[in-house]
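Re: your question about Nodulation S family protein

S., sorry for the slow reply, the queue was backed up all week. Below is exactly what I fed in.
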Amino acid sequence: MTVKPDLPEMMHRAFFRTVSLLSPGGQGRLLRRYFDWRHRVPDPWRLATDGYEQHKYLSTLRHLPPRPYRRIIEVGCAEGVFTSTLAAAYPEAEIVGVDVSGRALERARERVPDAGRVRFVQADLLTHRPAQRFDLVFCSETLYYLGRGDRLRAASARLRELLEPGGVLVAVHPWPEAARLHRHLDTSLPRLGQEVYTATWRPFAVAVYGAGPA
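Result:
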């Protein structure tokens, strides 16, 4: 089943495609301002309370290969709702949440206060260069904010660089738009699996990729 996005969502996408015409630095600065503005009220997308979002989180976790994960990064963590779920699911893992909005991260630190094991970093996916790699990388509802193809290609390359050998990358985005957003991942990483969920008001795809050995 193909579901076309409604008019407000189409306008939302068109706006961010226009923003992507800026330099990477300019785009990053505008995204920071935008998301700080959106987070002027707590949980603007109702990630902590909306049944659709909770269904998406649980569906995402079901697709993970069953193995221990030592280092996890969530790109676009917002206020840390899914980060909190990850911290509970993997109590031994070191977890890093990354987001461009400092205001969102303030609430994330309140939601997940384990400073020794869970930390939050204000950064842009295109410019963030962590000192370590991760055996589990999440990127959900994020790539469409980057707009045009060259930025998607660069973001996909950054996501690959975050993976340690043998690591797992999970990308979750609206369907059928996910086919476009994930295409650079599809050409550079082995896809371990994908499931498209259409029995929701907003279909989404969960795609799982694996990094090869060193």
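The beta strands are 71-75, 94-99, 118-122, 134-140, 163-174, 191-197, 204-210. Residues 96 and 133 are 11 Å apart (CA to CA).

Happy to talk it through on Thursday.
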